[in-house]
Amino acid sequence: MSKHELNVNPISSWIPFDKKPLIISGPCSAETEEQLVNTGLALKKLGKVDAIRAGVWKPRTRPNSFEGNGTIALPWIKSVKEATGLPFATEVATPQHIEEALKYGTDILWIGARSTVNPFTVQEMADALRGVDVPVLIKNPINPELQLWIGAIERIYNAGIRNIAAIHRGFSTHQKTKYRNAPLWQIPIELKTIFPNLPIICDPSHITGKRTMIYETSQRALDLNYDGLMIESHLNPDQAWSDASQQVTPDALEQIISALRIREATSDDALFVNHLEELRHKIDDADRELLEVVATRMSLVEKLGEYKKDHNVAIFQVERWNEVFKTRPEWAERMNIHKDFVAELFKLIHLESIRKQTEVVEKENVQ
Ligand code: PEP
Ligand code: MN
């Protein structure tokens, strides 16, 4: 997909923060006024948190789990804002949530993963946001479907909202992984390629589901030049009413943030730039060679197609491909290339070989 100009504003124009990355933190849910205010104060004391988060309405996968305090929690927003002086962010899933959240002074809204999957829900919220000046963060949909994420961003953008960021919170997949929601980093990377100006925030809490993994996932996000992190925190994580295993204490949050290595997007250092250019030239040369080899392979495939045709043999021979799929990843491993990558690569090569040979055979059929 081609690049789209999304004329969105940088985060620093709508949340004041001096140190990269932006940090949004706070409990999964606003449980009590005391819990919200005291967590907010402890976070404020760290001097490293730029906005407080807490769920007022919690869309839970199954009924009978805590679904948020709803309306009764709204006045607590004012209390935590007054106590900390920090902006407050919460999740909205209906036009009514938007209206109520804004009435009680919410500074930043986010659309949750269970809402992003539904274009009707997103459009209803977009309509409610028309003419409203509030930042909106859009979480990725639960399922690994980039188009739904893009669609939700476009709907909010088309409603006139320009203070937008995406939140990467991971995806449900059938494969068993060590994550609660598999990060599938290639999806947010593709989003960034399509919308280069769109800020991206990582939510390592919902990706990992485990407090011990939050640091490594946050670092990975920063290495990919994400703009910010949204990390769930709680004064007493084990007693949290929702998402207990992934929340960290404010002290633990401070340790995580201090240990993070912040990388620069780029560097002006002349030596660095020179060396970077040199390596990129070498990569360009390697890519050219790679394509030459691919071209050679494809012309051999074409010859093979003709030969099969002449001898009236079917294009696809399963034993041959089983052998290719088995041996190539094995060869790759010996060369220190990841076998899964090579398996994927050869699936593509296989498809193209079949296409090419079919073309050869069909051309001859016509003659
Ligand atoms: C949350 O941020 O607490 C939340 C429910 O997130 P998600 O929509 O990513 O599941
Ligand atoms: Mn949560």
Give an account of the 3D structure.
With 367 residues, this protein is an alpha/beta fold. The chain folds into 2 domains: 11-259, Aldolase class I (TIM Barrel), CATH 3.20.20; 270-366, Chorismate Mutase Domain, subunit A (Up-down Bundle). Helix content is 50%, strand content 9%. It is built from 13 helices and 8 strands. The protein has helices spanning 33-46, 74-84, 95-103, 113-116, 119-129, 146-158, 186-194, 204-208, 214-223, 250-259, 270-310, 318-334, 339-366; strands at residues 22-26, 51-53, 88-92, 108-111, 136-139, 164-168, 200-202, 228-232. An 8-stranded parallel barrel has the order 1-2-3-4-5-6-7-8, surrounded by 5 helices. Helix 12 runs antiparallel to helix 13 (339-366). The mean pLDDT is 94. Residues 28, 55, 112-114, 139, 169, 206 line the site of phosphoenolpyruvate.
| Span of the ends, CA to CA | 37 Å
Query: What name does CATH use for the topology of the largest domain?
Result: TIM Barrel
| Low-pLDDT segments | none
Helix count from the secondary structure assignment: 13
Q: What is the CATH class of the largest domain?
A: Alpha Beta
Rg for CA atoms: 25 Å
Structural class: alpha/beta
Q: Catalogue the ligands.
A: phosphoenolpyruvate, manganese (II) ion
